[in-house]
UniProtKB/TrEMBL annotation:
It holds the Pfam family PrmA. Belongs to the methyltransferase superfamily. PrmA family. It comes from Flavobacterium fontis. This is Ribosomal protein L11 methyltransferase. InterPro entries: Ribosomal_L11_MeTrfase_PrmA, Ribosomal_PrmA_MeTrfase, SAM-dependent_MTases_sf. Its EC number is 2.1.1.-. It catalyses: L-lysyl-[protein] + 3 S-adenosyl-L-methionine = N(6),N(6),N(6)-trimethyl-L-lysyl-[protein] + 3 S-adenosyl-L-homocysteine + 3 H(+). It is found in: Cytoplasm. GO terms for molecular function: protein methyltransferase activity. Its main location: cytoplasm.
Length: 278
């Protein structure tokens, strides 16, 4: 029996940064895929996972700063690849990293990454992934033992390997992300990435030179002690998945563990931070 999905077609005004904020909030619910449209975004969720009021209670939906309307469509089957291919455009990050689909032509970019996801998070489209790519581009990763926590499509782990990091652990709690990360690592001819399904409970006893964590504010704060314990002295912690207004909370969570702030990135109200362990 086929799985029945609901497609929520959102119109968002203003679209930027409203669409990105909406996707972030929906991403914390059981919505599985997002396709950005001209005036907003379409979000997909299994009908069995949807609960009445789930969308209406979102913070951004009730914010006076945005006007958000939506219609709902019942879909018997979703061809995710077809939906994605109709809307996916290649991403150029600072002229150095090019993220594309298999059906796009190869480029001469220093780092040419091929990703075939079923959702927009982790393709480079989302602000937080874009900033994390920028972070990695300016770092020396050669020989660095690296963790990509909440890896999604494993795009950041793939870039880390291209920049010389090894070995690399890529972990995500979502079973689909686990499978897709393995596929994308193979697609990019990576040989030093180990993909695992799970969360921070897998980490005790491990040690890393670089930890990449692009998740959300609450999970980052909750797991900060674990990250710090696994980070080697002089190691780097790269964080994203939160808004600019959340920075004080992340900073307060880092300070007790000897994590010293080094640099900040901002993009359409989203933030990314780099810390170094003393």
């Amino acid at each position: 029996m086929s799985v029945v999905y609901l497609g929520f077609h959102f119109t968002v005004e203003p679209k930027d940064p409203g669409t990105e904020i909406l996707i972030a909030e929906l991403g914390e619910l059981p919505f599985e895929s997002f396709v950005e449209q001209e005036h907003g975004v379409t979000a997909y969720i299994q009908q069995s996972a949807y609960e009445e009021g789930m969308v209406e209670n979102l913070y951004i939906v009730n914010s006076p700063e945005f006007t958000i309307t939506h219609t709902v469509e019942t879909i018997e089957q979703v061809n995710w690849n077809e939906e994605w291919e109709k809307n996916f455009d290649p991403i150029d990050v600072d002229g150095k990293c090019y993220v594309r689909a298999p059906f796009h032509e190869k480029t001469n970019a220093l780092y040419d990454i091929v990703i075939e996801p079923k959702m927009s998070f982790g393709t480079g489209h989302h602000e937080t992934t874009h900033m994390m790519i920028q972070q990695l581009l300016e770092m020396d990763l050669v020989g660095k033992k690296t963790l990509d926590m909440g890896c999604g499509t494993a795009i950041l782990a793939i870039l880390a390997e291209m920049k010389g990091a090894q070995p690399i652990d890529a972990i995500d709690i979502d079973a689909w992300c686990y499978v897709n990360s393995i596929e994308n690592a193979e697609r990019n001819h990576c040989h030093h990435i180990t993909v695992e399904e799970g969360d921070a409970r897998l980490l005790p006893g491990r040690s890393y030179d670089v930890i990449i964590a692009n998740i959300n504010r609450n999970i980052l704060i909750n797991d900060m002690a674990t990250y710090a314990d696994c980070l080697a002295p002089e190691g780097y912690l790269l964080l994203s998945g939160f808004y600019v207004d959340d920075i004080p909370y992340l900073d307060a969570a880092c300070q007790p563990f000897g994590l010293v702030f080094e640099k900040k990135w901002e993009r359409n109200n989203w933030a990314s931070l780099r810390y170094k362990k003393q």
